[in-house]
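Sequence in, structure out.
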Amino acid sequence: MIQLTELKSSSSTESEACPEVAIIVLNWNNYSDTAECLRSLKDIEYPNYCVYVVDNGSTDGSGERLEEEFPWCEFIFNHGNLGFAAGNNPAIDTAIEGEASYVLLLNNDIQAEDGLLKPLVETAEKYEDTVIVGGVLLNEEGDVYSAGGDFNQITTRLKIDEEVDSSEFRTNFVSGAMLLADSNFLKSVGGLSEYYFFGMEDQELAWKAKKEGKELRINSRSRAVHKIGGSSDRESPFRFYHATRNRLEFIRRNLFLPNRIIAYLFFIITRVVRFIQWFFQGKTSKIKAVLLGMYDWILREPFRRVSDF
């Protein structure tokens, strides 16, 4: 594997002084965004990092095209579209085996700015109790849309922070779109939970960190532009299906009585209200997606794919 330090003029002393970071970018049938992301990574100001590109079973030849164009990256080809968690885990395992100190998960529709990586590592190194660090995600207009967040155990809803109070601060959630995690922590929890095909992986990872008495922090000096919707259609039935299934499973796996019962009741009541709204709005595809998510979760059925909707 070619490390970026070999392609730069940084001294070996500087490189050795900085913890190694393995950056993981997941591609699925999206040459354009992934290529743009990789180009932005080549010149970020950090002397000791490598990039893994995981092709998640692309059928359009984008994985092979990227491998030819970006020889300084290490490529991993999955046998199919395994979703976000199972797609990233092979690269996480490889990074841990390669003794990288940190792993940076990065969505393929993100453009890295020069100062993206160094502030994240500085925060992780500064606080011994911190195992997950995130930055500030901007939309294409330059507005902040994600800078950490909080989780409500009763509603099981995630509140994303859109305001930045200081350069460094604690949080209860870091978006998986740009998430730096300590390799030892990832190893201790077995990587990302592969039950989740699409969504909730980052939320459960944060939950596990807090359960172990660890902290999550945001360093607002690390910023990146995220093409919201580039990786997924935010209003698609596919998204509603997985949001439903994931939410029910998260409650089952992580909440204890009485919060678990309250969370289930809140979910049922709010779904009934949503169904009525969607019915009169003619959005019956959303109703079907939620019902399928509930049905498949109860019966532990295999995940449905985009082609099923």
